[in-house]
Amino acid sequence: MPVTRGAHRAAWSREPDIMLESPPLISVLIPTFNRRNVLERTLPTLFQQDFPADRFEIVVVVDGSSDGTMEFLRKFASPCSMHFVGQPNQGPAVARNAGLKRVSGELVLFLDDDILCPPNLLSLHASAHNGQSRRVVFGPIHTSITSAATLATDWARIGGLANTEMLNRSLTPSIIRRESI
Q: Which of 45, 53, 86, 117 could potentially form a cystine with 80 if both were Cys, beta carbons 3.0 to 4.6 Å apart?
């Protein structure tokens, strides 16, 4: 049965209401604040995925940016379904929650705006869920060299692979499956 994108989407998406044969499998959720230049490098890495473009969507939450991010997104041509919402600056946690209310995929992949995605990110992510219920999937993190030094970027740059392997050994593999929010 087709799923109808509701009227609430028209207010924040540049797409008109359309009928979808099936919802996307993966929703990629990216909060951003005044990092248009970094987002300009991140989005193309998502568009070069080996995963079918009709099986994922990108939702960008612009968290009070004043650097032209919304204007950039309005003009941006995307090979997959891409939506964006603007809100007053409230921080990344609130931005992620706002985005969660707008995703339609069965799986939600949270990305920061400076993540450079390998071409197989989404296909590997989807395969990690095959036949599994409730899982959190974690893997190596590739950040832009222009990303600010934070605990997360330092962790990824200094010992990313070793840290990831240690984390994978200590955690039971488990990604967020969207069931009810």
A: 53
Inter-residue contact 142 to 118 (CB < 8 Å): yes
pTM: 0.70
| CB-neighbour burial class of residue 60 (10 A; exposed 0-12, middle 13-18, buried 19+) | buried
In the chain, where do the E strands start and end? 3-4, 19-20, 26-32, 56-63, 81-87, 107-110
Domain 3-170 has CATH 3.90.550.10: yes
By three-state DSSP, how is residue 139 classified?
Answer: coil
Centroid of chain to Cα 127 = 17
| Cβ count within 10 A of residue 109 | 23
Those residues whose C-beta lies under 8 Å from the C-beta of residue 70, and which sit 6 or more positions away, are 62, 84, 86
- What is the tens place of the pLDDT at every residue in 9-52? 323 333 433 444 577 899 999 999 999 999 999 999 999 999 99
